[in-house]
User: What shape does this take?
Amino acid sequence: MAARPDGRLSHDLLPGEKGPQDACGVFGVWAPGEEVAKLSYFGLYALQHRGQESAGIATSDGSRINVYKDMGLVSQVFDEATLNTLTGHIAVGHCRYSTTGASVWANAQPTLGATSAGTVALAHNGNLTNSAALNDLVRERYGTPRAGELAQGNTTDTALVTALFQGRPGEDLESTAMEVLPQLEGAFCFVFMDEGTLYAARDRYGVRPLVLGRLQRGWVVASETSALDIIGASLVREIEPGEFIAVDENGLRSQRFAERGAAGCVFEYVYLARPDTTIAGRNVYAARVEMGRRLAAEHAVEADLVIPTPESGTPAAIGYAERSGIPFGNGLVKNAYVGRTFIQPSQTIRQLGIRLKLNPLKDVVRGKRIVVVDDSIVRGNTQRALVSMLREAGAAEVHVRISSPPITWPCFYGIDFASRAELIATGLGVDDIRTSIGADSLGYISQEGMIAATEQPRERLCTACFTGEYPIPLPAKDRLGKNLLEREDPGGCEPGPDIDLERVLNPAEQHAAQDAAADLRARA
Assistant: This one.
């Protein structure tokens, strides 16, 4: 039987090259009378750039929660028939890139768990730094689960929170959340629900974005404003760091579980967020164009043409061209169908590498001094191949400009970079990197220039991947890591309460159900 495509997209321009991997996308809606599953589908569609490994939607009709999730893109996981089975007036959706726990079906979200009063479905964007301590707490309170996500093999920090939301006997989910949330460390934006209420919470530092929107007949919570736009919701405000909200038939209510801090991820402005998103009042596209302008001021060069590395470098390249007065042009053509393939390239094609995804416009670059603008350099392999390709196409000079400072430290708050040893800027100066990639010159924007472009105060931003200064304390090295919970021995104690996880079908059952539904429609 042929392998089912995993649907993952890759921003990497070289086969096997690993660039910065995105955070996750979360979406929630409370809207009686609306098709909440379809609203969630389109909301997740707008957030697809944040995670391409798996997708899922949970809905509730007030008495029962159902979850459908699978590996792959939103458009691969869901179809019309599937969405029509997800009925109700509350929904929670998720698209995942794995930061804690492997990329497997058992770790797809939303997670489903028992509470003392019902059920919780939970979606998470970010990464907790005290997962080991939370795992200890789950064992201490409930023993080794013999039912629920952890018992089913889920190895994510999200599953730990789901287990903790079980709460104490007689305690409702809202009270439990207010007790659990202050114990979580690291980055999190949660959107979750029980049978009758939609909830959302953002960590006290506000590392990842989370916004509140309004529909004519309901409320929406999403990772980015672009997800509100696609479903016609209006932006109300950002959910504040340390804030917990609940939405039900009595309206919206808010309370704080922690004092507000400030450590918004600056890399959201550089790369992660969609250009049409607004974060902390600053449009991301405008910030990237301004980064390009400041980059041109800091690293001017005589050249004939400014070109972007598609698509990530385009706004900064526009800004660089505006400030420098050098014409902007498209010197590279990107293949729009660049998802992963199960067909391995032959040795001949593999040697061509980057040409699988990019090809130069020879008549445009031939004989010209080219400025190539990109958002970041990780290992340097992509830039090295790009410079070589442009020279082969006849470029007289190739000058590389980067709209973020050198990345030298890993992220523990929801972005998966290469290891520190693999980061080319670790231990190498700018001129050494220039020599390594073969460019005539290389210039990175300064930290001051990057931060100024966001229009945010420095003290309200996390710049740890550039500075190594982590605003949220980290535990010991052996208590960190993507596969931390896969290394843990769960031990053995009393079972927790039962939860009907048969409501979350495995992929084979899901596909069989889809086939059966299609057959019924055909007969009708």
Notes: The radius of gyration is 24 Å. The chain is about 30% helix and 20% strand.
